[in-house]
């Protein structure tokens, strides 16, 4: 039992066993960039509507695209570097250009009355619900 490693700490335990630990530590920030989910998103069922919040710190309104297509709500971000930042001579820079897209299927979402607001780095999208229609047709067998 003493040699068991909790699942959440498993990859950390593997890294300690790696003989070139210093080499792995040096390149670990590079590997986390590509596996990042992009941004955090929460979906709340608030009786007559859905409230979707996305954490988009440092992202401007014109870099965000929100779309509802046949019940699928998509939030896409295309974060670009400004021309002002491109002219600087950085010795080390951790802010980057990035793209990310997240989506959720809302089966009873209404296309009318949608609203979105970006405030304090949090995007809030309100999607009203519509009365769910039965799309199932019973077929009798002869």
Describe this structure in words.
The protein is of the alpha+beta class and 142 residues long. The protein has two domains: 35 residues, no CATH class; 87 residues, Immunoglobulin-like (Sandwich). The protein contains three helices and seven strands. The strands form two sheets. Strands 1-2-7-6 form a four-stranded antiparallel beta sheet, with no helix packed on it. A three-stranded antiparallel beta sheet has the order 3-4-5, with no helix packed on it. A hairpin with a 2-residue loop joins β1 and β2. The radius of gyration is 22 Å and the shape is elongated. About 6% of the residues have low confidence.
List the helices and strands and how they pair.
Blueprint: H1 10-17, H2 21-35, E1 41-46, E2 49-55, E3 64-69, E4 72-79, H3 83-86, E5 98-105, E6 115-119, E7 122-128
Keywords: Stress response
Protein name: Heat shock protein Hsp20
Family: Belongs to the small heat shock protein (HSP20) family.
Number of domains: 2
What radius of gyration results from the CA coordinates?
Answer: 22 Å
Q: Which regions are unreliable across 5 or more consecutive residues at pLDDT < 50?
A: 28-36
CATH class of the largest domain reads Mainly Beta
The tally of helices reads 3
| Range of helix content | 10-25%
SSE arrangement, N to C: HHEEEEHEEE
- Beta strand %: 25-35%
Principal-axis shape equals elongated
Architecture per CATH nomenclature, i.e. the level-2 architecture of the largest domain: Sandwich
Query: What is the assembly state of the chains in this entry?
Result: single chain
Largest sheet: 4 strands, antiparallel
Structural class: alpha+beta
Q: What's the end-to-end separation, in Å?
A: 63 Å
What is the β-strand count? 7
- Averaging pLDDT over every residue, what do you get? 79
| CATH fold category name of the largest domain | Immunoglobulin-like
In spatial order, strands of the major sheet run 1-2-7-6
Domain SHSP: 32-142
Keywords: Stress response
Protein name: Heat shock protein Hsp20
Family: Belongs to the small heat shock protein (HSP20) family.
